[in-house]
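Form P-L/3: holo structure prediction, ligand adenosine monophosphate.
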Amino acid sequence: MTAEETIFSKIIRQEIPATLLYQDDLVTAFRDIQPKAPTHILIVPNKLIPTVNQVTSDDELAMGRLFTVARKLAEQEGIAEDGYRLIVNCNRHGGQEVYHLHMHLLGGEPLGGLLPQA
Ligand code: AMP
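OUTPUT (holo model):
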């Protein structure tokens, strides 16, 4: 199965505008267009991996880089000390909307419980 590109591939190649905060050979970070918290950043592997279900051992360096970049950006945003949340949604039940694996970095205010209360 060939994975279909999403808007995130265009952001990674800088073909469409986004507020880019970080980019290296493995990952790209940019501000979420519809922020759910004062800090809401997406950190994505440059390689198109649709969901966590397609992650392989070849991707371990890039997956680890998501965390080290999240740590650096949290410090840069001034939210490291108070704390933040990292989220990776997978498929329908996880609420995934864009099928290019991404880590959400959310913070800047108390984020409440893990899941919305019914
Ligand atoms: P998810 O539900 O985990 O797939 O999250 C997808 C996220 O991508 C949402 O928070 C959207 O607001 C965000 N998003 C969609 N399009 C863009 C875009 N062009 N630039 C920045 N963020 C985007």
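COMMENT: The CA atoms of residues 11 and 18 lie 6 Å apart.
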